[in-house]
Amino acid sequence: MKQLKLLVLLGALSLSNPILAECRNSGSFQQWMNGFKQQAIKSGIPANIVNGALNNVRFDPGIIQLDRSQNTVAQTFLQYSATKANPYRLSNGKRKMQEDYPLFQRIEKQFGVPAPVLTAYWALESDFGNVTGNVHTLQALATLAYDCRRGSFFRNELIHALRLIQRGDITPVQMRGAWAGELGQLQFIPSSYNKHAVDYDGDGRRDLINSKADALASAASLLRQYGWQAKQPWLIEVRVPPQMSWSLARLDKKLPVSQWAKQGVTHINGQALHGNTNTALLLPMGRNGPAFLAFPNFDVMLRWNESTVYTTSAAYLASRYAGAGQVRYGNAPIQVLNVGQVKTLQSKLRARGLRITKIDGIIGEETRAAVRQVQLQMKLPADGYPDLPFFQRL
């Protein structure tokens, strides 16, 4: 019966998803697993560790289905941040910072990363350690490593998972988390766990699942190694004028704070900006929406998750924990495109010869750059955000 269900599911996946139908492996999963075990042993992991961890691992078609149908962030910043920086997370995060004040202070003193930033990631990644996932990590990683879509990446992650077992950080039974192999209260993939985790509670092992001290300190360790600057801001909300050089407002354009002031950008309360730190003007929903100055630490946060919407929301939540008020909606109403319209937009941009790697319905940095080019050609305000009037004109 189980074999029949597996065949039915695999058939349904192949028929319903052309990507899966086209992406096939040569050889059986067991043949692949036997070869992988030999490679793992040759890499220096003891045979008893490899066999003990992987002997009962099976191919899981449900993981493939999740991988093919994963929902990336296609919401606007205001939509996404409203769900992530909700009253529950705001109140609980502030309470957690108070309850664990000595721990957060010790972490900041050692790694330079403040409590609001760590708490924001803790809230978003696992609901403060309450939702870490219950998927068999080794089985998920082996399935994705065998699969032909991102096999090389997940083979490396599976090797790192075995090394975590080898060094005694975690047992195969304890290794349960999200479907793509993320583990613990801050959802580290095994390679990040192996490279950046620290034993902060002093029990002799790095336990990112059960020890909040280990989990939070490891997140701080990772951010510091990514380049976090202590005692420096990450994101501040600002007010933009009705008119300015909108093409300057992009993450890859850094100007001193004083130069943004000359453009007419002010603090949210209208007070003048001062300073020489190089920052980017971030307009997640264009010139009429919310506006932020993104400091170098924001670029560090982008290394945690390259999605601009996710990272802006994480940075915004951290700023709320640090005392900032609720974000403004902006200077004027915005006619937002739906996912289908964004896909059509991306197809039209690609047809113009502009770089659009994926037709995915997500207004990412690549899509914004292409939109900005067309806005300049059409002599429109080049803020890189495609609203409904721009879409209709295109």
TrEMBL record:
One of its GO terms (biological process) is peptidoglycan catabolic process. GO terms for molecular function: peptidoglycan lytic transglycosylase activity. Pfam families: PG_binding_1, SLT_2. Residues 28-318 form the Transglycosylase SLT domain. Residues 341-389 form the Peptidoglycan binding-like domain. SUPFAM superfamilies: Lysozyme-like, PGBD-like. The keyword Signal applies. Keywords: Signal. Residues 1-21 form the signal peptide. This is Lytic murein transglycosylase.
